[in-house]
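WARN no homologs supplied; continuing
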Amino acid sequence: MKADKASNKAGNELLVFLWKKRRPLIVTGIIAAIVSIVVSLLLPVLYESNAIVFPAATSTVSFSEQRNAKASSMDFGEEEQAEQLIQILQSSRIRNKVIDRFNLPEVYEIDPDDENYHHKLGKAYENHISFERTRYGSIDISVLDKNPDLAAQIANKIVQLIDTVKNNLVKERTIPAFEINKRKLEQLNKAQQRLIREMDSLSDLGVINAEGRANLFSALNEAKTPEDKAFFKDVIEVNLKYGARYDALADLREYRIEKLTEQEVAYEQAESDAKEDFNHKFVVEWAVPSDKKAKPKRSIIVIVTTFAAVLLAIIILLIKARLTEIKKAT
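OK structure emitted
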């Protein structure tokens, strides 16, 4: 009860104080309102254009038979892909291209000779161009500018640059990988050709596969003429000498055929990744010029400024009154 009474008393005293000081507070509010109106009228009018894109779940074509269904080029990306896309949008690779393409230092009225040129240009860019992930997983590309047509052009150019910049980033890694796969495939092909030539040379000497060699002794026993017997003896001798080598080469050839098949798939994948330009996003909405200003919100500026000025005046008057009481008490 005592606390409530003290609170009510303090509230009543504050109301009485404000009533006594109503004239300076009203004057302060009027002055603040007039000043904020003038300032808001002097602020440049900005128009906002928005483009909305979804990241793709994958940006490559898989040559593997065991392709993950979630890696389909038709799938929309999730949170991880969206965050990666925002990092690319915020990168200097896109920022510098946009600045150069639309001559933003001139648009933002920044002097190239200013000692803080890069800092001011970066701040102006951040104040006019922003990227935000929506609750649906898409990316909202927002551009503010005095010219509504220019705002839309910048937003749409940024959308186009997504593929250009990401493809360049990907190629920095995939081109070396492709060259490695290409060299490996060439090495395997050359090794296989050497193996085949050696097997052909053994075949020219009369060396045959293991199944054929098993029948040579039967053929020798069944030979009728001395010439036939001599022929089969020579063939048996050659196969006894080189048969093991021929079998080893035959096994190695089959093994390398499997390796070549695997390497050809890897080569095709690497070639596709390195040489093809992929689309890394789904464009849900292209930016269009706005016919309604986005900033400044003059009514909000006037209300907030007036309220803040009156509140500051109340605080100053309370402090002044308290100081007067302290002086009288001493």
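Residues 148-205 form the longest helix (58 residues).
OK
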